[in-house]
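Schema walk-through. Below, the input block comes first and the output block second. Nothing else is stored per chain. Lengths vary across the set, and this one has 334 residues.
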Amino acid sequence: MIHAAAILISALILDLILGDPPFRFHPVRLIGSTISALERLFLKLGWSGLIGGALLASATIAIFLGVYLAVRSFLARLHPFLASVLDLYLAYSFLALKDLLNHATPVAQALTRSDLTQARAALQKIVGRDTSNLDAEGLVRGAVESVAENFVDGVISPMFWYTLVAVLSHLSGCPAPAAAGIVGMLAFKAISTLDSMVGYRSDHYLLFGRPAARLDDLANFFPARLSLIILYIGALFSSESGWNGWKIALRDRRKHPSPNAGHPESFVAGALGIKLGGPSLYQGEVVDKPWLGEGDEVVAPQHIHRSCRLVYRSSWISVLLFAAVIVALSAVLS
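--- output ---
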C-alpha cells in the first residue's frame, strides 16, 4: 500500500512539473474521441433517448477499463516495473492541477493590463458561459468560480476514487491495490468526460445526456463535500479566512443549481470575502444563478491569484491526506 500511496504523490508532482501535454493519444483525449465516435453511432441508430445515453456511458467505461486491465496484465507479465510505469502515467494524466492554474492565471494577467478582449478569450477556454459581454468583475468571478469548481473535478475526485478503490481492493485481498486505484480514477474520468461532452440541458442532450450528468453528480457527491474540510485546512496555510469560508459554505452551498459545485464555490467566496455567482449567459440563455458569499469588496485580478494559491496548497493537503489514509487504513484494517 505504500506503493499505491507513492503513485498518488508522484502523480501530483509530475502534473505540477509537466502539466497536461498536447499529446494526441493522451488518455483523456482518447476517452473524448471514443465518446464522439460512439455518440455518432448511437444517434445514427436512433438511440437518442435515455437508453442510448445509458448505453453510451456504460460502453465508454467498459471499453477503457477493459483496455487498461488488458494492457496492464500484458506489461506485468513482461516486468512489474512496466505495469507501475503505466499506473503512474495514468494517475498523472488524470490530475489537472497545473492546467487549471495555467488557464486561470492568464485571465488575471490580461485584466491587470486592462485587456478585456484577451481576458474574455482566456476565460472562454475554461467556462461554458458566454464571456463576450462580461465586464472585468464578471471575468474575475468566472475565473474564481472555475478554479473552485474544477478543484473538485480535477484534483479531489480523482484522488478520492483512487484511494477508495485501492483501500477496498486491499481489504478484499487484491494483490495490486495501485491498479485497483487506477480503475477508480479511470472510471471517474470517463464519467467526467462524458458529462462535459453530452451532459447538457439543451433539447438535443436533455435525455441522451442525462445518464452522464447524473453519474457525474454521484461521482462528485462525496468529494465536493470533503472539499470543505480540505479547503478549510488550505485556507489556514494561505492566509485566507477559513472560518468565514466554512460559514458561507454552510449557508450558501445549496443555492447553486448544481448539487456539487456550490460547495467549493461558496467556500472560496467566503474565504476571499467576495460574492460569486449572479446572472450568467449560457448558450444564448440568461441563467439567473443566486449569489454566493457576501461583502462589498470589489472583485479584482488579485482574487484570481488568491484562489489559485488556495487551491494549490489545498491540493498538496489533499494528496498527503489521501496517501496517509491509504497507508493507515490498510495497516489498521488488514
